[in-house]
Fold this sequence. Notes:
Distance between the termini: 34 Å
Amino acid sequence: xxxxxxxxxxxxxxxxxxxxxxxSNGDYGFFAQQMTDEVNAVCKGALRMGFREILVKDAHETxxxxxxxxxxxxxxxVRAWSGHPFSMVQGLDESFDAAIFVGYHSPSGSNKNPLAxxxxxxxxxxxKINGEYASEFLLHGYAASLMGVPVVMVTGDKGLCxxxxxxxxxxxxxxxxxxIGNSTISIHPELAVEIIKDExxxxxxxxxxxxxxxxxxxxxxxxxYKEHARAYKSSFYPGAEQLSSHVIRYKSDNYFDVxxxxxxxx
Length: 266
């Protein structure tokens, strides 16, 4: 049995300020360790459930955050970025039985996490798919659906977990913190690790196929840029059109084409 794990940092317990997520800052180390610990909890739970191949994508910023030697020896890890359109789920294919996303967060355009963003914290105001704000969970959950792989569990902030239950109630969610304005209320780091391990075990022995996200037949993507010049430049991408000084639209019935577009324009 094979498990794919995609891990971010803005949804781990306690993370509240951008300085805590950036490798160059002094308070980053604690949260990189917590990211490692929460991923490790999933790995240990999966091994208990009989999974013998685990691939982890370190999917935050540099892609070089997880303390690799602290993970079980059965684990392989994808570090840094290849440029593949699958991005945060690079390496995922049809051979995996399940995927789990760790440390994920609410999307750009929401107010449910001080660190809410979608793919970039500086470049865009929001990214919508079919009229709804799109989170990194949704973007990469749909990528997993392309491969026929269920995302059986997601950990992160309460706002994202609530959103996920509205999309597919069979997906296990673990809310380790809640965003209120520019603040967070977080559970203890050790408790987060304990709960994540227990819930991963439960999720991996349930009806995993029911967790596959249903792909829409057509995709209408709207991107609002913070700088008008980026919207103008992006409007020349094949299939894109400019709706206003800051907003472009792209339509397709092929989700991989959507991911390719996002790879170039976001």
